[in-house]
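Handout, page 2. Input:
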Amino acid sequence: MSNLTYNQQLAVDSIGNVIVSAGAGSGKTRILTERVMKKINEGIKIDEFLILTFTKDAAQQMRDKIKEALRKANNITEMNKVDSAHIETFDAYALYIVKKYGYTIGLTSSINNVPEDVIAIKIKNEIKNILNDFYESDDSTLKDFVHTYCMNNDDYIVNFIYDFYLYANSQLNFDDFINNYKKNFLDDKKFKDDVDSLYKFYNDRVQRIKTLVNSLEDEQNIDKFNKYFNEIFLANNRKSLFDALNKKFSGRIPTLKKSKVSYNDFKSYNEIKDLRDEIKDFDFHEEEYFKFDVPNAQKFIPFVIDIEKKVKERVLNFEKVKGYFTFNDIARFAYNIVSNNEEIRNEIKKQIKLIFVDECQDNSDLQNDFLSLIQNDNLFCVGDIKQSIYLFRGANPSSFAKKYKDYKSNIGGQAIDLNDNFRSRKEIVCTINNIFKKLMTENFGGADYSRFHIINAGNKEYDTVGKIDGEHGIVTLTGNGDKDNKQSISELIIPDIKKRIANHQKIYDRETKTIREVTYKDFAILSPTGNNVCDKLEKELSAADIPCNAIYDEELTNDDSVMVILSIMKAIKILNSKINNENIIDLKHYYVSIVRSFLYRYDDDKIYHLIKDDSYKNDDVYLKLREFANKNRNLSIKDLFENIINEFNILENLKYFSNPLIYIYKINTFFEKIAVMDSLDYEVDDFIEYLDNLRENKISMDVKHSSFSDNAVTLTTIHKSKGLEYKIVYLVNLKDQRKNNDQYKVNNLYGASLKSFAGKQAIQVILSKNEYERKFYEEKLRLLYVALTRAEDTCIIVDNEDILSDEKKKVSKEKINGVGKFLMNKICDINFKETLYASMPLDLPTLDKNKVMQNLQKDWVSDFTFKELSGISFEKTKVKHTASKDLKPGTNLDYLEKGTHMHLLMQIVDFTKKDTSFINNEGERKLINKVLNNDLFKNVDKAKIYKEYQFIDLENNKNGVIDLLLVFQNFAYVIDYKLKNIDDDAYKKQLKVYYDFVKTYIKKDTKCFLLSLIDGDVKEVIIDEWS
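Output:
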């Protein structure tokens, strides 16, 4: 165990319950391996470990690393036991528990996993069957239910029951959720509370608009907006606000006065528009809500709950008979077995000496609760809340955050931070810090980034043997800005890759510790979404003769090789039935699909004439289909599939594809699905209906699309890139992400909601949507962090719409919608601010330095996200200038640039460690060291440090940004940065605002200081409290 950092060694040696917050590139896999080896050397056997990973691939990689470490240690006995040890996913371990102890709940050991999509169709069919039973009994509640909510069919009710079931079934205890639903969500008080919550939701937005309007710098603008929002601004209670909002807004929202619009006003204007868009479609009538919506919910949802119980019973019986269960079912079985049987719990605790959990920030509530049952002061969790990106899989990062916070206070265990990034160059590290310390907080993103998560550039080789001149860090690759002839993403990336290859660009190889020329395998293209984006890019890269390893999920039934098999199956079904005027059209469709496919490759002209004169009936392919259908009646799905493969030479014809192995893999995956259906006694007709239901119900049958070449560009999604690293990364398609609108149909805070008769949307939908979208946007911020931290040398944000263009930013930002608006605006804001600072490592290719320096003399301002101090929240507001505030006319711009750069260094430097080794310029390093050696920073390790601390004091109508706030136990220091001049008495007025705020809200003795960023001098400014 050599060359470990202090904290890495601490993690390896720690005892008891431990949580390791391991930032990107911090060497967590090595720590896990080293800790395993240490414990084995202490006498613990490998089969006494429980090592849980997030994916099967990660489990295999962990096994390989442990085996290699044991081989090097010549511990062959333990090495030979690794493959049978519990190094696996949570799902695999849960299955092991259920197979071993399932007898306690009436299950046999011969259980298997069934895909969620198979059971999804079973659930929907059972809902329909149960409703049919009610129809036959002429049930009056169902009749009223249908009459109230349905028109031509009962699809709405079926879908409502289905969505409700899926949510209830995702809870830790289905029965508890269902049985307590009436008490938790159908009580009269709960409905009244929901109306109060709705009022708060809209009133908060109105008040925020009012604050933003009053912050505008031009009185004419303020008057225009006050007039536009007049009625809602005057509303002073719930009824008046709801009445005002129901009247809608008249006309378009005013525009800002175009001359001299500051960046702060532009930001405020955009936020005002966004908030207006949130409230403009308000449609709620409280009287109708209590007259219709509440009674309907109290009448019909208990009926739905009774159906849910029946569905659960039938589905569970089906699974038990067949011996197939979903992973969610198996996980709950495992939890119930361990929870309800103390003897089994103790047996597991006795067997498992140490529990290791990798990527634990993505654990679900059920997984965390299960681990709490079997841990015995031996839980070692490794994760990074900044990389929690699996909300759609049930991940609950707040559980990790709570454990981390408790352990940080030594409650229940200890927390260790690994913040040294050994992967990326310092240019990338510095920019990531500068972005996320302003965006990610404990309340938004789940991490107090500035306090606990600043990452350090830990790989010093980049400054020695790996030092390379040229462009590094986070940069942009922008389009031509031509709306009529917009460049595609590939038209930007392909020339850039070829240029770097042709120019023999140099990169540092961390494995060989040498500088070498870049190759295709050093590049990666990452997208937030896969399928259509990756498929298109893969084809375009191939056409440009750039080798590509594409790894993403795609819809299996849309694949060419699978679609032709489905067409043959469907044609056979029709040919073995009575052909009529309706199904003959379908038969022709399937025939055309087959002859046009890679199997026969008929051209369109030939197909046209065959169909036009019905001569297709004499075509060899059609005749072969008829003969095959006749010979293969009444076969199982599995046997029919195998016969189709052989009779139609499917595998042999795959040679016409560029990479036939990919399609063989897809066909094999499809066969595995069919084998499961076959074991569940699905017949061919059932299987075809199942596939149709998948499409109808928008349930995907995904398959991993992957190809491999030794030297090829990687093309994958950000999710699949997690844990990996690449020399040069292109980030594409950041603006085109979509929310899943089904996620807020049911919510654990507001329950389920039927269609409303009191407005366009039910209260519960509005409130649930708000709750979900907050979590969703937090996750997208973390997704951005994951993406940026994949790069070793350079991360290139590809912007084919020129959204990041400095000159067009004001216009184009208004065109970005949804998640794209969130992500791209964050990048836009950060880039824009950093261009003001001029010398940040973020090197924008389109940056015009002269324009940047000119902008510094204009009326631009910076903005930072809110922070919290002593429980007080402070939101965004207008703040001061950061560099030009103490300039005299004619100040040299180089002088100004030095000042802004020193300001940046003060933001980045760690005051407690006082490590300035990352500063290359010797003069700047000496100057920062001079500042840090001042008595002000003598005991800084005992202070809470707040850099760029923004506040708004609504009571006194004051606001500002304190450059540096040091809060000690009994006193506080307010430190304001100046370029050089620290003798001007005019600064006292500004410091008085800061002084009053700190004294009032932090309630500590306060001293104020001016710090010169040019010469390092410090001056205390005495504030007269009565001035």
